[in-house]
Amino acid sequence: MNRYKAYIGLFKEFYNEDNIKVDEVMKSHVHFKVGGPADILLIPENQEQVIKTIEICRQNNIPFYVVGNGSNLLVRDGGIRGVVIKLGEVKNITVKGDRVEAECGAMLKDVSKAALENSLTGFEFACGIPGTIGGAVFMNAGAYNGETSHVIESAIVIDNDNNIVKLSKEELELGYRSSIVMKKGYIVLSATFKLESGDGNSIKERVDDLTLKRESKQPLEYPSAGSTFKRPEGYFAGKLIQDAGLKGFSIGGAAVSEKHSGFVINKGGATAKDIINLISHIQEEVEKQFGVKLHPEVRIIGEE
Ligand code: FAD
Q1: How many angstroms does the Cα of residue 111 sit away from the middle of ligand 1?
Q2: Atom of ligand 1 nearest to the CA of 223
Q3: Phi/psi class of residue 45: alpha, beta or left (left: φ > 0; alpha: ψ in -120 to 50)?
Q4: Catalytic hit among 177, 190, 206, 261
Q5: Crossing angle, helix 200-217 and helix 108-117, to 10 degrees?
Q6: Among 30, 93, 42, residue whose Cα is nearest residue 301
Q7: Edge-to-edge strands of the sheet including 99-103?
Q8: Which of 124, 226, 238, 280 is in the most buried spot, having the most CB atoms within 10 Å?
Q9: Rounded distance between C-alpha atoms, residue 209 and residue 125, angstroms
């Protein structure tokens, strides 16, 4: 029984019918390709719609959850109660001098491309991370010695009282896979990055090099959420998992990648339960064998 369906009229007033979905299966919206239905899934097309949607949800005590590109999400098989706001259509990117302003749903690869086209360096690290600007600020996404915190200047967020606030880099409190946005539950509307003038050819070379590295080392042919676990201090999660003898180990359709043991993949037909059981098994084995606790980097949401 979807009790939130009753609220749909509140959104019909300012959404196209095509952008309101009821009982929408989340497996179509996340990289892992698992997850049950969201009661209501809304696809706003601009920041005003995002702001109004959140105001309405808060006024009516409707639980809501924002999703970027779903590349770091594991949605449980029972799905999500309330409203899911998928931000991927709020995606304008503007370049002004050495600054790039990007809306929350802009893909990192598109921001990286815009930087390259304007011979701006600093954003190359993000070219292969399959997430949005909102997801990157939330997680302080990073790769190959670069991270969001190195290049971000500020972000505009919706705080918990529905104020629209500009937060400086310092106020964003970006740490290893953490931010004030994550801690407080703010919503990122847009972010501004300060890059440096560079040489177009060198930027392109770096992007090509990182893309090759990713393609050769990561199991990109299978659904996953990237690295399943955060890096434990002093160790590499993938190496610990491999040394624990778990490379290729599977539960149902979920498996530890043969190519990169730090990735749990959906090798076909996995349920969220398979993946969660595999994550628990890996945590237990690694702790038993090496005394190291692994903490998921992937966000696990929704109901059993
Ligand atoms: P989602 O998965 O949609 O959401 C993740 C979290 O961010 C959720 O809690 C969501 O509520 C929150 N969120 C999303 N948008 C907003 C917003 N506008 N405001 C507030 N909260 C928001 N990550 C890395 O850091 N480095 C890597 O090298 C990397 N490689 C990857 C490779 C693969 C193949 C895959 C599948 C994933 C990889 N990831 C990597 C993980 C993922 O791409 C990043 O964490 C990315 O930043 C997530 O962005 P997203 O838009 O997909 O967020």
Answers
A1: 15
A2: 36
A3: alpha
A4: 177
A5: 150
A6: 30
A7: 93-96, 99-103, 187-194, 152-158, 164-168
A8: 124
A9: 10
Cα angle 20, 25, 26 (rounded to 5 degrees) comes to: 95
Averaged pLDDT, 191-208: 98
Which of the 8 DSSP states describes residue 129? -
Longest dimension (CA), the chain: 57
Residue 168 burial (10 A CB sphere; 0-12, 13-18, 19+): exposed
Render pLDDT for 236-264 as a digit per residue (tens, 0 to 9): 999 999 999 999 999 999 999 999 999 99
The helix (H) or strand (E) run that includes residue 117 is helix 108-117
CB of 50 sitting under 6 A from ligand 1:
no
Read off the pLDDT of residues 142-180 as tens digits, 9 standing for 90 and up. 999 999 999 999 999 999 999 999 999 999 999 999 999
pTM of the model: 0.98
* SS3 state at 41: strand
Going by CA atoms, what residue is nearest to atom 45 of ligand 1?
72
